[in-house]
Amino acid sequence: QAQLEESGGGSVQAGGSLRLSCAASGFIVTHSKMEWYRQAPGLEREFVARINAQGIIPGSMYADSVKGRFTISRDNAKNTVYLQMNNLQPEDTAMYYCRRPAYDNWGQGTQVTVSS
Hints:
It is a single chain. The protein is mainly β. 0% of the residues lie in helices and 51% in strands. The strands form 2 sheets. Strands 2, 4, 5, 6, 9, 10 and 11 form a 7-stranded mixed β-sheet that branches. The protein has a 4-stranded antiparallel β-sheet with strand order 1-3-8-7, with no helix packed on it. Strand 5 and strand 6 (60-62) form a beta hairpin. The model has no long low-confidence stretch (mean pLDDT 97).
């Protein structure tokens, strides 16, 4: 059974950085398209970033709002997907979720709070 577990959220000041982790079990992330989403209070869940299965081009893509600040990556040995978030802004405050779109698997989320 596929499972996703996010971690790494926290509270930072504007301009700070965080790295989110999504540990996968029950499948191999190398062979899977993986995504990060976020949901702020009162708003709909929105797409943040995607990393395609190894060998697929393009390798990754980003929402315009995070392009140049966030980087999605994968550690095959740890079967984990990461989201490196730099220059965080208050509008990045949200619950962040990891997703395996092929089977619509979701993690429980990790909270990111950015203060000005």
